[in-house]
């Protein structure tokens, strides 16, 4: 027994000695594996459909027949036009971009109350409210974008969404006077709890960075665009938000609120990486 243990100890000692001799190799392996992993994390394939991205870029830059180049209004890199109040498209979620183009293309007459087919047995019974399905896919009214979106095919829409969604974006915070910023921050971060109105960031994400396909970013959008959109909700020209989530907010905002919130979000910095 004693001998066995002794032998064991010797084997262990030899092993450790050998490992010690190979310590450089061992370290080198770890460093190589580590840097390989880091390289892969930084350069891993993005999962972007490259053919769609290229087709989208071509259409966005050159237009086609009666489709003007998107970049003419939305900026050479989809950054938008601050002075004109044209929205940025760079780095928006492709699902959001595609939905907006579908909503612009939809004829307002296609929305509203749709009758459900009535089961044969009940064809003689009077129509009651429960026979109706309220079907509101939603529309967005804008003379320019309505015409452009109607001319796009479903494939164009997918390609453009992939292209603009893949673009990087950098927002430079705009100077805003202190009182406007304070009021805007109050609305953005706190909402109006006394009226049951949640804060903007509870849906639009911290700093208005946006969240998933349904909650678009507000940071980096021209203040005039933000104000225009809230106005359009108030007049019913924009009526495409799921569950009227944004309409209910818009209806509680005063003209001052719109200015303050828009100014607050123009003061945020934002950096979206190329995908
Ligand atoms: C002549 C100027 C002009 C051109 C060209 C143009 N747009 Fe627009 N786009 C606008 C304006 C203005 C709005 C804001 C409309 C509104 O108030 O609802 C807008 C809004 C949008 C929006 C909604 C953005 C958001 O945040 O909800 C998308 C998406 C969009 N455009 C995509 C495109 C694409 C894709 C093209 C090219 C095929 C294009 N636009 C060409 C002016 C233009
Ligand atoms: C309860 C959730 C919710 C809250 C809170 C909310 N929003 Fe929204 N907002 C939405 C949704 C959803 C949309 C996208 C609608 C769609 O699908 O077109 C939206 C869209 C918008 C847009 C249009 C963005 C674009 O790219 O076209 C603006 C501007 C906006 N919100 C401003 C605000 C402001 C300012 C506040 C705070 C005062 C606010 N929102 C609070 C849900 C919310």
Automatic annotation (TrEMBL):
Gene3D superfamilies the record matches: Cytochrome c-like domain
PTM section of the record: Binds 2 heme c groups covalently per subunit.
Cross-referenced PANTHER family: CBB3-TYPE CYTOCHROME C OXIDASE SUBUNIT FIXP, CYTOCHROME C4
Binding positions (heme c 1): 70, 73-74, 145
Chief localisation class: periplasm
Transmembrane segments: 20-42
Subcellular location: Periplasm
GO MF assignments: electron transfer activity; heme binding; iron ion binding
Binding positions (heme c 2): 200, 203-204, 246
Domain Cytochrome c: 51-168, 186-269
Cellular-component GO terms for this entry: periplasmic space
Family annotation (Pfam families): Cytochrom_C
Protein name: Cytochrome c4
Keyword set, alphabetical order: Electron transport, Heme, Iron, Membrane, Metal-binding, Periplasm, Transmembrane, Transmembrane helix, Transport
């Amino acid at each position: 027994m004693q001998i066995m243990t002794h032998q064991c100890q010797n084997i262990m000692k030899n092993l450790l000695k050998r490992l010690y001799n190979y310590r450089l190799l061992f370290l080198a392996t770890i460093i190589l594996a580590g840097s390989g992993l880091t390289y892969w994390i930084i350069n891993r394939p993005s999962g972007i459909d490259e053919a769609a991205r290229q087709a989208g870029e071509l259409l966005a830059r050159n237009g086609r027949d009666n489709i003007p180049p998107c970049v003419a209004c939305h900026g050479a890199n989809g950054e938008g036009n601050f002075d004109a109040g044209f929205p940025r498209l760079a780095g928006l979620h492709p699902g959001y971009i595609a939905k907006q183009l579908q909503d612009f293309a939809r004829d307002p007459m296609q929305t509203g109350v749709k009758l459900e087919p009535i089961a044969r047995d009940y064809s003689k019974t009077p129509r009651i409210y429960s026979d109706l399905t309220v079907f509101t896919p939603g529309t967005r009214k804008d003379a320019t974008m309505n015409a452009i979106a109607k001319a796009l095919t479903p494939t164009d829409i997918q390609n453009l969404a992939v292209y603009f969604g893949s673009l990087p974006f950098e927002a430079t915070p705009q100077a805003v006077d202190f009182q406007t910023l304070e009021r805007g921050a109050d609305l953005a971060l706190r909402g109006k709890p006394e009226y049951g109105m949640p804060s903007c960031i509870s849906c639009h994400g911290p700093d208005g960075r946006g969240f998933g396909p349904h909650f678009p970013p507000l940071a980096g959008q021209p203040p005039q665009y933000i104000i225009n959109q809230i106005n359009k909700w108030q007049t019913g020209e924009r009526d495409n938000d799921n569950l009227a989530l944004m309409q209910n907010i818009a209806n509680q905002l005063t003209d001052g609120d719109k200015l303050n919130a828009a100014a607050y979000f123009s003061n945020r910095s934002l950096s979206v990486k190329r995908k």
